[in-house]
Amino acid sequence: MASERRLYALKAFDDTKAGVKGLVDAGVTAVPTIFHHPPESLDDAPTHPHGHQFSIPVIDLAGLVTPSGRASVVGAVKAAAETVGFFQVVNHGVPEAAMSGMLAALRSFNEEPAEAKRPYYSRDPGRRAKYESNFDLFQSRAASWRDTLFMEMAPEPPPPEEIPPACRRVAPEYVGLVQRLGRTLFELLSEGMGLRRGYLEEEQECLDGLSFAGHYYPACPEPHLTLGAARHSDPSFLTVLLQDAVGGLQVLVDDDKNQPAWVDVPTAAGALVVNIGDYLQLMSNDRFKSVEHRVVAKSVGPRVSVACFFRADASTRVLEPIVTDAGGARYRSTTVAELVRHYRAKGLDGVPALQHVRI
Ligand code: OGA
Ligand code: NI
């Protein structure tokens, strides 16, 4: 639990409603203590030489136009989902202009004067569009060097007036394009599990809910003391991430033989990063891997990224393995609401949410 002194500092920071960007604008030259991560979280000693087995594949979706090309794309997606849990896609159908426009809009929102952003700053769970710094500010052990514009975009987007003007037109357009890509990805993943193409979308409704997290990572005066995002796996079926050219995203790769190692996700112009989330790991009975990742802080910046989480639109949604192998189901049936409770508690007990429902 947070000490009284820490709580006081967290509250003071939160009350500014100006986020980390506000600290940077005020000219801080030292990272405040509330952002200091413990040394074991910062230790990035185990980094692997770029051995073949650790690379994050780039998959060209242009292959989908022919049946043989499609088969090889399914094979590549399946192989990535079963190992590193991350891949990048190119020729994915989201135009470059839509990607750069989305990043520019998010950046301009974050760089508006604090007074313009303050009305959007909120921790109200009922609010569908909000600006916040660290959704788990009061739960986590250490705050991260990041601000976020968070919006529930599907099944219903927020009323336009609740979306900051800088993103009002661009964000829904970008999300529409990501949903179209999502349909393709869920088709490929269905086939990769040996199910019919429409299974994850139609039977499992994986495309019905989408949350948007637009992140802004200001340049950090002491990057060795904090993180842009602490290690976590995603509470989603699947996540599609758009990042700019700054970099900093790392994936914890474990090949069972070596020590787990943090591997950089390279920035690639025009590419989108895709990763398997916890819900799909559970549904695939551990065939597909929801892999932990983090974002390191950097002295250069800002870095801007947009994560689109495909997730169930109702907290009553039941999750259970949809494919099993000889060993039987590895997870008991659960609900999104139960997992979300575990995510909220993770900052305190450190146990990954899926552990709680593993048989
Ligand atoms: C996330 C996430 C990574 C990034 O939002 O869950 O992992 O690069 N983001 O911003
Ligand atoms: Ni993530």
TrEMBL record:
Residues 206-312 form the Fe2OG dioxygenase domain. The keyword Amino-acid biosynthesis does not apply. One of its GO terms (molecular function) is metal ion binding. Its cofactor is Fe cation. Transmembrane segments: none annotated. Pfam families: 2OG-FeII_Oxy, DIOX_N. Keywords: Iron, Metal-binding, Oxidoreductase. PROSITE patterns: FE2OG_OXY. Belongs to the iron/ascorbate-dependent oxidoreductase family. This is Fe2OG dioxygenase domain-containing protein.
